[in-house]
């Protein structure tokens, strides 16, 4: 939306109840092509920056702002929580679709597609669950492709001997801390 910063700067802000450091406002606004005005719920939090003594008198505070147009009867904070959950869910859907192959089921049979879809969702949930149980904060934030690249795709050499195939991998894993946390979940 054009001029959102200017629109938000003209509003009357009040401290958000139970959320220290946050301010909120609710206002009605009608954008150019709209037939009527709509309710906006907005939140802002002051950015943490160390002002220099020279600019301390001149600097205007900077904010991280969140603004939602909604027809729900919620406070700005409740709106922020509701849409935050939706954004998280949309991120999971995008990750499953693009990184687990759910966007490209390759058969013409419904039952086969259903089985492939269920297997992909089960694999996705299992990897997410293991990352959450690992206790490693960095591992929890990794997307599926990152887990696959850093933990599963490990350089190795396939050796043949005594009529057996042996996979030789490095002694030290590239991401040793995350690998140890990952393995500890299965123990």
Architecture overview:
By secondary structure, the chain is of the alpha+beta class. It has 2 domains: 4-83, no CATH class; 100-186, no CATH class. Helix content is 43%, strand content 19%. The chain contains 6 helices and 6 strands. It has helices spanning 4-9, 76-99, 110-134, 137-141, 144-152, 176-186, and strands at 14-15, 22-29, 38-46, 63-69, 157-161, 164-168. The strands form 2 sheets. The protein has a 4-stranded antiparallel sheet with strand order 1-2-3-4, covered by helices on one side. A two-stranded antiparallel sheet has the order 5-6. A hairpin with an 8-residue loop joins β2 (22-29) and β3 (38-46). α3 crosses α6 (176-186). The radius of gyration is 25 Å and the shape is elongated.
Question: Could you give the topology of this structure?
Answer:
Blueprint lengths: L3 H6 L4 E2 L6 E8 L8 E9 L16 E7 L6 H24 L10 H25 L2 H5 L2 H9 L4 E5 L2 E5 L7 H11 L1
Antiparallel strand pairs: 1-2, 2-3, 3-4, 5-6
Helix pairs in contact: 3-6
Q: What value does the Rg take, in angstroms?
A: 25 Å
Spatial order of strands in the largest sheet = 1-2-3-4
Question: Helical content, roughly?
Answer: 40-55%
Number of helices: 6
The assigned structural class equals alpha+beta
Terminal-residue CA separation = 51 Å
Poorly predicted regions are none
What do the pLDDT scores average to? Answer: 85
Q: What is the number of domains? A: 2
SSE ordering: HEEEEHHHHEEH
Count of individual beta strands: 6
Query: What share of the residues does DSSP label as strand, in percent?
Result: 15-25%
Shape: elongated
């Amino acid at each position: 939306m054009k001029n959102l910063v200017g629109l938000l700067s003209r509003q009357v802000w009040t401290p958000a109840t139970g959320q220290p450091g946050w301010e909120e406002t609710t206002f009605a606004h009608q954008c150019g092509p709209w037939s009527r005005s709509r309710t906006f719920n907005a939140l802002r939090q002051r950015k943490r920056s160390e002002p220099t003594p020279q600019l301390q008198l001149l600097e205007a505070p900077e904010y991280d702002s969140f603004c939602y147009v909604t027809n729900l009867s919620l406070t700005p904070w409740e709106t922020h929580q509701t849409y935050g959950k939706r954004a998280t869910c949309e991120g999971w859907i995008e990750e499953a679709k693009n990184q687990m192959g759910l966007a490209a089921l390759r058969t013409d049979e419904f039952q086969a597609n259903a089985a492939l879809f269920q297997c992909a969702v089960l694999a996705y949930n299992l990897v997410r669950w293991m990352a959450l149980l690992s206790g490693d904060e960095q591992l929890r934030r990794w997307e599926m492709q990152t887990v696959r690249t850093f933990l599963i795709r490990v350089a190795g050499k396939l050796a043949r001997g005594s009529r057996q195939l042996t996979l030789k991998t490095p002694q030290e894993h590239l991401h040793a801390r995350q690998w140890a946390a990952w393995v500890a979940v299965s123990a």
